[in-house]
Amino acid sequence: xxxxxxxxxxxxxxxxxxxxxxxxxxxxxxxxxxxxxxxxxxxxxxxxxxxxxxxxxxxxxxxxxxxxxxxxxxxxxxxxxxxxxxxxxxxxxxxxxxxxxxxxxxxxxxxxxxxxxxxxxxxxxxxxxxxxxxxxxxxxxxxxxxxxxxxxxxxxxxxxxxxxxxxxxxxxxxxxxxxxxxxxxxxxxxxxxxxxxxxxxxxxxxxxxxxxxxxxxxxxxxxxxxxxxxxxxxxxxxxxxxxxxxxxxx
Amino acid sequence: xxxxxxxxxxxxxxxxxxxxxxxxxxxxxxxxxxxxxxxxxxxxxxxxxxxxxxxxxxxxxxxxxxxxxxxxxxxxxxxxxxxxxxxxxxxxxxxxxxxxxxxxxxxxxxxxxxxxxxxxxxxxxxxxxxxxxxxxxxxxxxxxxxxxxxxxxxxxxxxxxxxxxxxxxxxxxxxxxxxxxxxxxxxxxxxxxxxxxxxxxxxxxxxxxxxxxxxxxxxxxxxxxxxxxxxxxxxxxxxxxxxxxxxxxxxxxxxxxxxxxxxxxxxxxx
Lengths: 250, 270
What we know:
Chain A has about 250 residues and is α/β, with parallel strands linked by helices. Chain A has helices spanning about 45-50, 75, 95-105, 110-125, 140-150, 170-185, 195-200, 220-225, 230-235, 240-250; strands at about 5-15, 20-30, 35, 60-65, 65-70, 80-85, 155-160, 190, 205-210, 215-220. Chain A is globular and about 55 Å long.
């Protein structure tokens, strides 16, 4: 069976000489809900950027549903929706424009573009804000717009880089339900988050990255069965201070 | 929240391998961005052209003898028109690329299935639209002064479109290179404005001091203005074939250079 994501020996060194990702190999099965954990600066976002075309890999290969994400980037990108950690929008554009333009870049024809945009605006509770400029929205509303934009072309693989950062409890729970529903329908989801309970609740497979390398990878059950659960595993794998690990295991 | 229904695959298939909808979306997005600042984009160049035509063409020009059998106002109009087309094209493409990088929404197109060529063509298409709208306004202003002539519409469109492409490409290069607003305006101040003024906007090459005339012939702006002037009033100081060759060479060389910048991700990808 073709994996949703197959990364082999990925390396990324920035022009400044910073090594962000080092010999990273990772496979995410089709239909999986994959939690990608790691401290700030560990290489999560860089890996995602290499997968989606925002960053150029220094070496290594990335296949998305068996398609080379560098050589056959157009075909690979059709299958991916990205909700990035930082807002990357024209802040003077309206909510409707942001979502509808993205559908346009993905080549959706007018009727489908309009229908998908309207539906996602309703689904994310953005109707009263549809004509507002992005810069006028609160943090939670901005996050919803970014999510709607990521979903507008109905991607098979959804990459969510800290989607619930700065989001209130109600929306977070609402979003969890929504993501679980999308995953049940067959969409593969890659989620990065600093909220371990979020990853524990949603993901089936977990990978931990530190210093640009995968340091632990496996089914969620393996993480939960160890003393101290996911938190202790995470702290151990990322080389945290011993007293922090002991605190988690206690 | 309920998950959305799956999208039909036919709704996103490119036609002839080209993402036409994506291309059109880039143009729509840029038109929307330009229309947020209509005074800056259109009214300012029209007003500036009006002042140039009135003061230099009408007031001062009324006291100048004809040039090649043409009234001075008719002679100066193509120069003023080209000056504004160059500015419109350059400003459109620099601001388009730079703001996308500055606000990071360039990433929207980078993660989408748009090819580098489609991104460049989409950007240039809007550059041409803005230049043509600017040109139409100035032609109308010229008409109000009884100074607008177009002897060859095909030739006229060739010059407007090809010069827009050249300065659109130049704007993309600067937009990719610049890291602040100061760098963005540098080329305009030190290169475009001086060369366009000595390229024959207000005078013929013969009017320049002898030692300066060779610079005029080495200045690509001279060929742009000379070509546009020929298409409008039939007056020329250099063979038009040479001007067309210079212009098309620049289009090809700069297109390849910009395509190369996009393909290596210069200023675009981390």
